[in-house]
Design a protein that fits this description.
mainly alpha; 53% helix; 8% strand
Length: 100
């Protein structure tokens, strides 16, 4: 039987300078709950701030795209100087043979 205990690690071989310390399960559970109660509010607050920042960025980007679509002037590729400094979009036909 001692062979099976040694095989499955139930007997420990310690040197003179080694000690074994154990912590009860309830103590570990208490530490986990304490850490969760201290860390969770900061984590949730950080995530709410990040989600708010991301939503604001997405709304501003969408508004900029919509405003750009409303204000764009389509011009031909041969007449690039007709713009007065506003937002322009070049409208050109592509030659499929020249695109590789």
């Amino acid at each position: 039987m001692s062979f099976l205990n040694h095989l499955f690690g139930s007997t420990q071989s310690l040197d003179d300078n080694q000690e074994v310390e154990s912590e009860s399960g309830s103590s570990r559970l208490g530490n986990s709950i304490f850490c969760a109660l201290c860390v969770a509010p900061f984590l949730i607050l950080g995530m709410v701030i990040m989600v708010g920042w991301n939503e604001k960025r997405a709304v501003c980007e969408e508004r900029a795209i919509i405003q750009g679509k409303n204000e764009v002037d389509k011009i031909k590729c041969t007449d690039t100087t007709s713009s007065d400094g506003g937002l322009v979009m070049l409208s050109c036909d592509l030659d499929p043979d020249s695109v590789t």
